[in-house]
Amino acid sequence: MQTRTPFYALVAALIILGIGASIYRGIEHDVPFVPGEQLKSWSIDAKVSFRAKGEPVEVSFSLPSDPAFEILVENTTSPGYGLSIQDTDQGRRAVWSVREAYGNQQLYYKVTLIPTGLQRNPTEQEAPKVRPVSWPDTEADVAQQVLADAWERSANNLSFANQLMQLISEQNRSQNISLLLSNYSPNSLFIKLLKEQKIPARIVHGLHLEDQRRRQQLEPYVEVFSQGHWHFFDVKRNKQTRPNDLLLWEREDSSVLDVVGGSKSQVNFSMLQESRSALSTAIDMMDPKSFDFSLYQLPLEEQSLFKGILLIPIGVLVVVFLRVIIGIKTSGTFMPVLIALAFIQTSLVTGLVGFLLIVACGLMIRSYLSHLNLLLISRISAVIIVVIGIIGVFTLLSYKFGLSEGLTITFFPMIILAWTIERMSILWEEEGVKEVVVQGGGSLFVATIAYLAMSSVWVQHWVFNFLGMHAVILGLVLLMGQYTGYRLLELKRFKPLAGDKQ
Amino acid sequence: MMFAHPTALRQKGVLSMNKRNIDYIARYNARKYYQRVDDKLTTKQLALEHNIAVPELIGIIAEQHQIADIPVIISQQSGFVIKPAKGSGGKGILVITNVDQGRYFKASGDEITGNEIARHVSNILSGLFSLGGKPDVAIIEGLILFDPVFDGYSHEGVPDIRLIVFKGYPIMGMLRLSTHASDGKANLHQGAVGVGLNITNGKGLHAVQFDKPIEHHPDTGKNLIDIQVPDWDQLLHTASMAYEMANMGYLGTDMVLDREKGPLLLELNARPGLAIQIANAQGLLPRLRLIEQLKGPTPPVAQRVDYAKKHFSNYADF
């Protein structure tokens, strides 16, 4: 007896591969595991306006770069301006330019962002260099006192920054702080003090996201570098945690907007919260150029074709299970799957009624054909034509009576129906009505179960979006092919054998 | 309770359909020899080469145009059987027991017209009864004059003896008796009665119809357990010889007892059914395992039959 280890290894490999690929797809490509999942997205309009002086104009506007938000779509409206999006040391920037412009100018940048849920900034290898700061004589001593004060109450860079922030934003601040704040804004004082202590820190500009707000401005915040990460500080509110609805627009310590050749420049933001399908979002985010075995790259028509085709493995799995494990007899091995596919188009009840009507009519006509002494091929062909006729008549009748469900009857596979009628008719002659009912009923039962499985939203979502599931199905089918145990119906069949113990 | 517990069946050694397919048919029956059992014409020719008696061959219809010759072929017969060479499950077998001045009658007394016979043969040739619908050949055989010992046990049909032969050893047997429900056919799923037989002496053990144990023939009311199959040794030998002939490890042999010719091999089956276990009230697995653990070359037929008679005498042994 040969060992079955390689077989089980293959099955295990298929199942692990399939599940692994599906999990990878879910996590890496954000394909939702749950069908119909909705995602909140933010649609943000930035309006840059300024007064041009009739000179060449160059506008450099920083673009959002925040690990907590992913850019889904972005576009700009800027009639007459040349545009380039540049990746610079100061982050990503949109640069608009025009040779000559007069009067009020408006440039628009529109972006759709998806929250990623990542609040922590990515690790950076090197700590940024800190340039030494210089203080005017009057402030130097005071600054040193403040630093010493905070230093005493802290254990590391982060807690030092925290202490410093508290000193600056306290309600009744010390005289030292008050003196310094007369010359600096809280943020710049905070940064200057940190830099004095050789701790890297920078100003960042964030946008508070709130649905349906217009004419919003960026607000400055501070990020302090410690142990490989930038940490967020809201000095104004004396907070160290970053709110979820804060989008960091500019993080590279540079200006948000630079306008050359214009004056009175300003930028306003308006925003709108939208909810969209998580699935289509994930598809939109995929890089179409990357090598990825995905059906989304196909034209829509082929995609919907594949949606149907990829259901067949589920139907086949159901058939294998019901035959091998349960032991239900069907007429024609995979006929139930094809009937179930037709049920998907017609809906279950219409499909069942239609199927029974066609087969019943077909059987009546077939019983006449059997008197004609025809060759098998011509008889089957005749049955096919008759089936088409029956379908035509039923479609017309249901149209006349205004039963729109009846029109879907055309989705039945005619060749399969013809063979079903032929087989049932032979079965009837050979083994009687009982066997026809058993096998026909078994087929319809299997078809119904297969239909219920294939029409499930979950199943449809999984087989199309997680192709790895097909490896799992293949593994399960192979595994069931090795099942040597009793079928459920055999337990009933062989019941007399178990009963008498002698 | 409707269902038996799987462990109860396992203890009884009941062979399941899946296990039969995977562990016995797939392992012991080589694909290349299937034709020997699936094509009854080949079986017949092989049987004759091996000196195994078979029903008389009257004619073969291989082409549609030969259908016109049927009346000539059967003109001398008082009864005959038309069957597809590659039929399965007893499908397509037409038994004419009485020919009276060009009129044909089935065992049930129903008349069959010449046209109907022609249509039936045409259907056979078109492959209606063969696996996968492949074109087929119709065989016309002589009617079996069945042994009167079974009078009263069989209704309108020939009782046949099914023996499961595993690696040349006859391991389990049953007598299949047609009933009114089975329309004269000896297939259990069509309603024939199966009587389990003691391998040692051919005596009846248990009886079953539609997978349910019964004691009396549903049509004639005779007690089925009393049955004693004659020519039992020769039946065992014939069945055992089919192993060398078909080269199949797991084989079902179907035989009939002819009044004049004795046991005749009707057909072989590479996928014999499992109902024989119910008829014997005994699982096949213990017997299969006993044979499986035998080592060395296959002994000659007589030795195999002796071994089987010795070991499979009493079904309660295992």
Automatic annotation (TrEMBL), chain A:
Keywords, alphabetical: Membrane, Transmembrane, Transmembrane helix
Pfam families: 7TM_transglut, Transglut_i_TM
Domain Inactive transglutaminase fused to 7 transmembrane helices as annotated: residue spans: 24-183
Domain 7 transmembrane helices usually fused to an inactive transglutaminase span(s) in chain numbering: 255-497
InterPro entries per record: 7TM_transglut (IPR025840), Transglut_i_TM (IPR025838)
This protein's record includes keyword Thylakoid: no
Presence of the UniProt keyword Membrane in the record: yes
Protein name according to UniProt: Gonadoliberin III
Automatic annotation (TrEMBL), chain B:
Positions of the ATP-grasp domain: 44-295
Entry's Gene Ontology BP terms: SOS response
Alphabetical list of InterPro entries matching this protein: ATP-grasp (IPR011761), RimK-rel_E_lig (IPR011758), RimK-rel_E_lig_ATP-grasp (IPR039523)
Coiled-coil portions: none
PROSITE patterns assigned: ATP_GRASP
Keyword Protease: no
Superkingdom of this protein's organism: Bacteria
Gene Ontology terms: cellular component: cytoplasm
This protein's record includes keyword DNA repair: no
Keyword line: ATP-binding, Ligase, Manganese, Nucleotide-binding
One function term, GO molecular function aspect: ATP binding
NCBIfam families named in the record: rimK_rel_E_lig (TIGR02291)
Name this polypeptide is given: Alpha-L-glutamate ligase-like protein
